[in-house]
Write a structure and sequence with these properties.
Organism: Oceanobacillus piezotolerans
Number of helices: 6
Protein name: Stage V sporulation protein AE
Pfam family, one: SpoVAC_SpoVAEB
Strand content: under 5%
Number of strands: 0
Keywords: Membrane, Transmembrane, Transmembrane helix
Largest sheet: none
InterPro entries: Spore_V_AE, SpoVA
Order of helices and strands: HHHHHH
Radius of gyration: 16 Å
């Protein structure tokens, strides 16, 4: 059943993004930013973790999870280190994913040539 709910919740997040493109005519940057902010707000309200527990990868794979990670890390570190923890917490939690994206992007650029 977890696969079903992951598919449904992940699909709904994607449908929201597609509606933002098609109906509201938002640019990809605006849509991306809006979904990250939505994930941040849901985590700030304490609603994203229960969604992850319910839907698994359906909630952790879409871009809303990046917003969740930013706020979640900032809040955890703020409890330990105060205001400086807000900044360091965001970087600590998301650094592995961002670093991997940079490394694999560079490797891809070295190994493959664009068609032109």
């Amino acid at each position: 059943m977890i696969f079903f709910w992951a598919f449904v919740i992940g699909g709904l997040i994607c449908v929201i993004g597609q509606i933002m493109f098609d109906v509201f005519k938002l640019s990809p940057a605006h849509t991306l930013t809006s979904l990250v902010v939505l994930g941040s707000l849901l985590d700030g309200l304490g609603l994203y973790e229960p969604l992850i527990d319910f839907a698994g990868a359906g909630a952790t794979v879409p871009i809303t999870s990046f917003g969740n990670s930013l706020v979640h890390g900032a809040m955890l570190e703020a409890e330990k280190h105060g205001i400086i923890g807000v900044v360091t917490g965001m970087f600590e939690v998301t650094s592995a994913g961002i670093s991997a994206a940079i490394v694999f992007g560079v490797i891809g650029a070295i190994l493959f040539k664009p068609k032109g």
